[in-house]
Design a protein that fits this description.
Blueprint (H helix, E strand, L loop, with lengths): L7 E7 L2 H7 L3 H8 L3 E7 L12 E2 L9 E2 L1 H15 L4 E11 L2 H8 L3 E5 L16 E4 L9 H13 L8 H5 L18 E2 L2 E2 L2 H4 L3 H19 L11 H10 L11
Parallel strand pairs: 1-2, 1-6, 5-6, 5-7
Antiparallel strand pairs: 3-4, 8-9
Helix pairs in contact: 4-5, 8-9
The structure holds S-adenosyl-L-homocysteine.
S-adenosyl-L-homocysteine (SAH) binds next to strand 5.
Amino acid sequence: MAEKSGGVHFDVVTIFPDVLDQLGNIGVVGKARQTGLIKLRVHDLRDFCGDTHRTVDDAPYGGGPGMVLKAEPFLRVLHHISESQGVPDSVVLLSPQGKTLTHNIAERFAEFRHIVLFCGRYEGVDERVSGVVTEEVSIGDYVLSGGELPAAVVLDAVARQIPGVVGDRESVTADSFVRPMLDFPHYTRPSAVNGLSVPDVLLSGNHEDVRLWRKRQAVKRTLLRRPDLLVDAELDPEEEQILGELAPGKFGSGAKK
Ligand code: SAH
């Protein structure tokens, strides 16, 4: 991998470039593009067909329903990208059969300098494209009609992990999954909504009490919603103690052996 000079350069390959152009202009990703921490180039697969009809798909060998995206346009676009931008650190095919995207993968991708994202459509992509793909990534165990939304999900998740993209670093490090712990609940004005009030501690102005309350809430909801995250988790002493109170003997350093 080349020396990292800050920021990640994405090349997205799709038959619907408008979708990525739009999604890449909003929110955190849009801002990161303005500040140069993300570079996003969107390539229309049809520009690399090599025929005047701009045919990107064909019927599957062996028969059966649907169409398959042809291999050559992907190989051509990758050649074009490598010639003009240098060989990418990673060529990712969005696929329901890939590794499920996690915080760790997003963090790892944020270390790269240059990533190519291939978006499939129809029945998928000709298997021979896998020869140039370095990894396949899924955004969950369900099938979407195309890789454009998954590519936008990868872009957003990776962008958040690039230092400087999200202004307040603390808001990223407190996010769910950064540690094996879900985020604590958030409240904003007004202090009463439909008779539901904000927990008193958050109005108390006592920062230490607020910090401990949030920690307790984070442990509590992780225990309730995602106890799997707590198995073998490395917790800090305060979290260990809270967990010991909430679920005695179940998790934590002494319990899991
Ligand atoms: N027949 C394929 C699914 C094709 S869906 C199969 O069963 O494995 C068409 C395209 O949408 C895929 O090539 C992929 O790029 C994208 N896609 C669909 N679901 C996805 C998911 N969960 N994660 C990432 N990409 C997905």
